Amino acid sequence: MKVRRAAELCSLIIENVKKIYVGEEVTLKKILACALANGHILFEDYPGLGKTLLVKTFSKLIGCKFRRIQFTPDLLPADIIGTKVWKYRTGEFVLMKGPIFTNILLADEINRAPPKTQSALLEAMEERQVSIEGETYRLEAPFIVLATQNPIELEGTYPLPEAQMDRFMMRLSIGYVKRFEDESEILKRRIKWKKDDPTIDLKPIIDNRTFVKLQRVVEEDVYIDDSIIDYISQIVWKTREHPKVEVGSSPRGGLALLKLSRAMALIEGRDFVVPDDVKAFAREALSHRIILKMEFVLEGETQEGVIDEILRNVKPPIEVG
After folding, report:
1. Containing domain of residue 60, as a range?
2. Both 59 and 142 in a single domain?
3. What is the pLDDT of residue 320?
């Protein structure tokens, strides 16, 4: 598959998502870019903004299997990855696969499950495999986790371990619609659909194998110059030197920026990365990977604000190539 054809398919996916979901196009592009980069997304947003609808729409359009897990305090690791069950008639243990055996997994309110249960996702998110009673099982490609958590309701929740936060390629906030007309459009579409879930009738644009090919185009056919790589490295390095930061971004943050910028270049129809592709994802890829010093947190400083400050101070390359 060539870059031009891949970009056309990306554009087609975005246009069809917009027929269902009302929201900013740049947000849809960022979600698609993360999926093309084979990354996971943490949605930190208020309830009722259409996150589940958005994820189901994307899943249907790219021909991927979709499963949803409602995280609760009594959820066990085996409820996610599965377990082996003894079958009396056959005299052997049989694997009962959990909902993690899918392409797109929606982990709803992930911070409502205890750390032991959350850790069941660590191996799957990093290595695309799960271990059940000493045996390893590969997950079908693509495998992408999209998790949600409420940023304001903290009662009865468990903070996500830093190791798990670092495995999310980006943290994204959809937010409310920006215009009054969009609010009305949501209601008009609901009347037109005559049902709460319009994804039931959606037909795939591509299949999951074609989507894997799109991911391969990002990896193999999108050029990134050494000057852009140095630009990414400087941004990540500055998060560790910033006076307001206790713990800076891990190297995985730089890898996330690298992959996301290449994916965005493809979506925009280019076979090369420009500095704006990097800037577009700096907040989403790095803010959840840094920990601010407590005195600055109490003063109202935010992780996103620190990333914005770093972007202003690190000069992008003027010429590429």
Report:
1. 40-168
2. yes
3. 52
